[in-house]
Design a protein that fits this description.
Blueprint lengths: L7 E4 L5 H12 L3 E6 L2 H13 L3 E6 L5 H15 L4 E4 L14 H25 L6 E6 L12 H21 L4 E8 L13 H9 L9 H12 L10 E4 L9
Helix pairs in contact: 1-7, 3-4, 4-5
The structure holds nicotinamide-adenine-dinucleotide (NAD).
Length: 251
């Protein structure tokens, strides 16, 4: 059911975590994957891992937190691979701060990377996606966009916004055969979340999760791949919570 043979996919923030797992899985199923990240060494490592597993990857070092940066990432991959079929807006820069501690610089960077880049990315990708072939965009939102905790005012706002962007983009791009969906992961261990985790918090999360464990990056990557693939040919404007059931249940 799921094949990315002949498809070209750009994944932002693919040097680590969920983005890297998604890049590896899409490449393993036949995609040519554009691996974007901020730093050359992050990109080189992910590209090398994909190549050593027999996949095809193109490194795209860009800061997607500016309109120029995400446009350059899209056009560079489009030029090198000849087309663009899939965009995964995954990159984020995250700080959790209480309301009095929120500072303009922190909020601006979070908005630039986690919110504006999704809009500019959709704009740039829609310009080059071929309406005959169609296209698929998957935005990485969060359970925090639906259910909020303390110290997450900016993050929750951004991820709720990403869900709204997903619906609005799907409404506008459907006639061009571009599907737009989002995933809403619960907390999964990554380089980015390491400093925010502790055993007590993990135990509470597991207790509130019907499937009885934390998710991992591969759980999220699989859901992104399903939404990006032709297996989801009539699915658009949706948020798929990938959370072991935590968002929809209580004890
Ligand atoms: N890990 C979780 O628990 C979790 C839960 C819900 C949602 N998410 C979302 O999933 C996505 C990935 O999270 P993760 O935990 O894998 O993150 P991570 O921090 O492990 O990896 C993110 C990557 O994005 C890159 N990046 C940051 N700013 C960038 C920029 N301006 N341009 C290009 N690349 C940039 C980083 O260098 C890093 O390699 C984010 O959107 C995050 O909000 C994560």
């Amino acid at each position: 059911m799921i094949s990315f043979d002949g498809k070209v996919a750009l994944i932002t923030g693919a040097g680590h975590g969920i983005g890297k797992a998604t890049a590896k899985l899409m490449a393993a199923h036949g995609a040519i994957v554009g691996v974007n990240d901020l730093k050359q060494e992050f990109v080189d490592e992910a590209v090398a891992e994909i190549a050593s597993a027999g996949g095809k990857a193109i490194g795209v070092v860009q800061n997607v937190g500016t309109r120029e940066g995400i446009r350059a990432a899209v056009s560079s991959l489009h030029e090198q691979a000849g087309r663009l079929d899939i965009l995964v807006n995954n990159a984020a820069w995250v700080r959790y701060q209480s309301i009095p501690d929120i500072q303009p610089e922190t909020m601006e960077r979070m908005l630039d990377v986690g919110f504006k880049s999704v809009i500019w990315g959709i704009q740039a990708a829609a310009e080059v996606m071929d309406p005959e072939r169609g296209g698929a965009i998957v935005n990485v939102a969060s359970l925090a966009g639906f259910r909020s905790a303390v110290n997450s005012l900016v993050y929750s706002g951004i991820k709720s916004g990403v869900m709204g962007i997903t619906r609005a983009a799907a409404a506008e791009l459907g006639t061009r055969n571009i599907r737009v969906n989002a995933v809403g992961p619960s907390a999964v261990p990554t380089e980015g979340t390491e400093k925010h985790r502790n055993a007590e918090r993990d135990a509470k999360r597991i207790a509130a999760t019907p499937l009885g464990r934390l998710g991992n990056v591969d759980d999220i990557a699989k859901a992104i791949c399903v939404l990006a693939s032709d297996a989801s040919s009539f699915v658009t404007a949706q948020v798929l919570y990938v959370d072991g059931g935590a968002s929809r249940t209580s004890f």
